[in-house]
């Protein structure tokens, strides 16, 4: 907030203090509202899997002992929803982390090996193709752990919202290393693009039910990007696919 600087003892000093105080209160109020909204959204999102788990557990108790199919279906649903909840709790903890105490370490990273490593981990986990084209530029200056975390979120989305190959391309401009993650999947309607990075925002409920999304991935990606001085841009065409473009400052964060 704005600090009060007492420059003179003039008559409008009190009015200035009053104005600053009001501005502070307004900011605090906005912050509080945002926090309230977040807690309320988080509780709501966690309530859904809990309700599903509870009803399947009840079904299991009632009919699962003498019906193997019911038991199988109920247990599978319980496992799915627990994993969903587990993932969401990890994401919430990530967002709640006190960013000021995060030790960020900018180092010179060899770009091509880093992208190939991330791609091969994704490939192994999901048996999908992640194709890297990143010989130039050779280096990037960033925090390895955080930049990988950011890449994993975008690659995971590219995988979830497409069926074909995912492309990772790197190039450079005068002051940035530009990494593009491209999929040829379902795409995003233009009116949704400005909201994608909001916490819990999802384009439609049913495309996410299928993929098990929570709407928190891109909010986390945006926070990571902010800490690393990276700008994220989105280009997308409905039905044709999406590109998430990372502009990484060549000098890192000063
Ligand atoms: P989620 O856990 O739902 O995937 P995100 O915050 O990562 O949450 O993404 C927010 C929403 O943006 C998603 O629900 C999805 O609708 C849309 N989205 C993100 N990435 C893509 C992509 N590569 N292609 C299509 N839609 C996407």
Automatic annotation (TrEMBL):
UniProt main location, coarse: membrane
Keyword field contains ATP-binding: yes
UniProt entry tagged with the keyword Calcium: no
Domain Histidine kinase: start-end pairs: 41-252
EC number from the UniProt entry: 2.7.13.3
Subcellular location: Cell membrane
Enzyme class: transferase
Record's catalysed reaction(s): ATP + protein L-histidine = ADP + protein N-phospho-L-histidine
Entry keyword set: ATP-binding, Cell membrane, Kinase, Membrane, Nucleotide-binding, Phosphoprotein, Transferase, Transmembrane, Transmembrane helix, Two-component regulatory system
Domain HAMP: start-end pairs: 1-33
Membrane topology category: Multi-pass membrane protein
Protein name per its UniProtKB record: histidine kinase
Residue range from the parent sequence: 178 to 431 of 431
């Amino acid at each position: 907030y704005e600090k009060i600087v007492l420059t003179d003892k003039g008559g409008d000093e009190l009015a200035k203090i009053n104005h600053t105080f009001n501005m502070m209160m307004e900011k605090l109020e906005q912050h509080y509202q945002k926090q309230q909204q977040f807690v309320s959204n988080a509780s709501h999102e966690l309530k859904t899997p809990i309700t599903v788990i509870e009803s399947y557990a009840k079904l299991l108790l009632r009919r699962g002992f003498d019906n193997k199919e019911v038991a199988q279906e109920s247990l599978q649903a319980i496992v799915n929803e627990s994993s969903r909840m587990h993932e969401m709790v990890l994401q919430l903890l990530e967002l709640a982390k006190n960013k000021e105490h995060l030790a960020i370490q900018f180092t010179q990273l060899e770009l091509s090996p880093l992208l190939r490593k991330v791609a091969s981990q994704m490939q192994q986990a999901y048996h999908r193709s992640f194709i890297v084209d990143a010989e130039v530029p050779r280096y990037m200056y960033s925090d390895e752990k955080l930049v990988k975390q950011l890449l994993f979120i975008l690659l995971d989305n590219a995988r979830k919202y497409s069926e074909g190959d995912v492309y990772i391309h790197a190039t450079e401009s005068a002051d940035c290393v530009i990494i593009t993650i491209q999929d040829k999947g379902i795409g995003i309607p233009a009116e949704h693009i400005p909201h994608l990075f909001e916490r819990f925002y999802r384009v439609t409920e049913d495309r996410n039910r299928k993929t098990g999304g929570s709407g928190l991935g891109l909010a986390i990606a945006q926070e990571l990007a902010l800490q690393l001085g990276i700008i994220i841009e989105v280009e997308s065409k409905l039905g044709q696919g999406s590109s998430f473009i990372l502009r990484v400052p060549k000098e890192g964060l000063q």
